C-alpha cells in the first residue's frame, strides 16, 4: 500500500477542512511547495493534491501553488479539484502531473472520463466522495442519489487508474476511516481503490491492511500535520 500525504490548497495555503466545510479550514503551511518537499524528504513516494477553491469554482484556482510543487518535487503527484474538461486535463498532464482526479464529471459527464482514460492510460483517477454512501459533487456541496459502488462499477471497462474513496463525514475529523465501506468497494470492483477520509493513526492503517481488500493505498492529511501519525512508521507499516 502507498501512503499519499494530502496537500489541500485553499487561497494558496496548505489547509485541512473539517468534514469538507470550507469555512472550517485550518492553515497548516503558507508554503505548499515547502510542505510537499518535507513529505518527499521524509520518504513519501507520491503526493495527493486538491485544489479546494477549484472544486467549487469548476476550474483551477490554485494553479500557482501546484506549479511550485511540481517544480520542486520529483515524485509523482495526483491532483483533483475543478478539472472538468479535456483541455484542463491535458494542460495538467503536460505540466508534469502523474494523474488527474475527476470527481464531479464522473457524475455529470461520464463520457469525458472514458475519453480521458483512453487518451491518457494510467493517468486518470476517479474521486468518489460520499456522504452516507451517496456521491456528492461540486466540492461536496451537492448531494446526489447515486450510490458509490454503482457509480464505480460504471467505469469497470474504462481503464481508469484508481478510485479514491472519501467518506466526507470522516474527513478531517480524526475519527478513523470508513474501513468497512472502503473494503466493500475494493472487493466490488477490479479498479484499484485508495482509502481517504479520517485516516488518523497507525491503527487505522493497520485496520485497512487487515481487511485483506486489494487497496492501492491510503491518503492522510491532518494526522500527518498534527503528528498523530509518525510518517516514517506509517511508510514502513504500509511497505511491510
Automatic annotation (TrEMBL):
<protein>
    <recommendedName>
        <fullName>1-(5-phosphoribosyl)-5-[(5-phosphoribosylamino)methylideneamino] imidazole-4-carboxamide isomerase</fullName>
        <ecNumber>5.3.1.16</ecNumber>
    </recommendedName>
</protein>
<dbReference type="InterPro" id="IPR044524">
    <property type="entry name" value="Isoase_HisA-like"/>
</dbReference>
<feature type="active site" description="Proton donor">
    <location>
        <position position="129"/>
    </location>
</feature>
<keyword id="KW-0963">Cytoplasm</keyword>
<dbReference type="InterPro" id="IPR023016">
    <property type="entry name" value="HisA/PriA"/>
</dbReference>
<dbReference type="InterPro" id="IPR011060">
    <property type="entry name" value="RibuloseP-bd_barrel"/>
</dbReference>
<dbReference type="Pfam" id="PF00977">
    <property type="entry name" value="His_biosynth"/>
</dbReference>
<keyword id="KW-0413">Isomerase</keyword>
<dbReference type="InterPro" id="IPR013785">
    <property type="entry name" value="Aldolase_TIM"/>
</dbReference>
<dbReference type="InterPro" id="IPR006063">
    <property type="entry name" value="HisA_bact_arch"/>
</dbReference>
<comment type="pathway">
    <text>Amino-acid biosynthesis; L-histidine biosynthesis; L-histidine from 5-phospho-alpha-D-ribose 1-diphosphate: step 4/9.</text>
</comment>
<dbReference type="GO" id="GO:0000105">
    <property type="term" value="P:L-histidine biosynthetic process"/>
</dbReference>
<keyword id="KW-0028">Amino-acid biosynthesis</keyword>
<keyword id="KW-0368">Histidine biosynthesis</keyword>
<dbReference type="GO" id="GO:0000162">
    <property type="term" value="P:L-tryptophan biosynthetic process"/>
</dbReference>
<dbReference type="GO" id="GO:0005737">
    <property type="term" value="C:cytoplasm"/>
</dbReference>
<dbReference type="GO" id="GO:0003949">
    <property type="term" value="F:1-(5-phosphoribosyl)-5-[(5-phosphoribosylamino)methylideneamino]imidazole-4-carboxamide isomerase activity"/>
</dbReference>
<feature type="active site" description="Proton acceptor">
    <location>
        <position position="8"/>
    </location>
</feature>
<comment type="similarity">
    <text>Belongs to the HisA/HisF family.</text>
</comment>
<dbReference type="InterPro" id="IPR006062">
    <property type="entry name" value="His_biosynth"/>
</dbReference>
Amino acid at each position: 500500500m502507498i501512503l499519499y500525504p494530502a496537500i489541500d490548497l485553499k487561497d494558496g495555503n496548505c489547509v485541512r477542512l473539517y468534514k469538507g466545510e470550507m469555512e472550517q479550514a485550518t492553515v497548516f503551511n503558507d508554503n505548499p511547495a515547502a510542505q510537499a518537499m518535507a513529505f518527499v524528504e521524509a520518504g513519501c513516494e507520491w503526493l495527493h493534491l486538491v485544489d479546494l477553491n477549484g472544486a467549487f469554482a469548476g476550474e483551477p484556482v490554485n494553479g500557482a501553488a501546484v506549479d511550485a510543487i511540481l517544480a520542486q518535487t520529483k515524485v509523482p503527484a495526483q491532483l483533483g479539484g475543478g478539472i472538468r474538461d479535456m483541455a484542463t486535463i491535458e494542460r495538467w498532464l503536460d505540466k508534469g502531473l502523474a494523474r488527474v482526479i475527476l470527481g464531479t464529471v464522473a457524475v455529470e459527464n461520464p463520457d469525458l472520463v472514458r475519453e480521458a482514460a483512453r487518451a491518457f492510460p494510467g493517468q486518470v483517477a476517479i474521486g468518489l466522495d460520499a456522504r452516507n454512501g451517496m456521491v456528492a459533487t461540486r466540492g461536496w456541496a451537492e448531494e446526489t442519489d447515486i450510490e458509490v459502488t454503482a457509480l464505480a462499477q460504471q467505469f469497470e471497462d474504462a481503464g481508469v487508474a484508481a478510485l479514491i474513496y472519501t467518506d466526507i463525514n470522516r474527513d478531517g475529523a480524526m475519527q478513523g476511516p470508513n474501513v468497512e465501506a472502503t473494503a466493500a468497494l475494493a472487493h466490488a470492483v477490479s479498479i484499484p481503490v485508495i482509502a481517504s477520509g479520517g485516516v488518523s493513526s497507525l491503527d487505522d492503517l493497520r485496520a485497512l491492511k487487515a481487511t485483506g481488500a486489494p487497496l492501492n493505498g491510503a491518503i492522510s492529511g491532518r494526522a500527518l500535520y498534527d503528528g498523530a501519525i509518525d510518517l516514517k512508521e506509517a511508510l514502513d507499516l504500509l511497505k511491510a
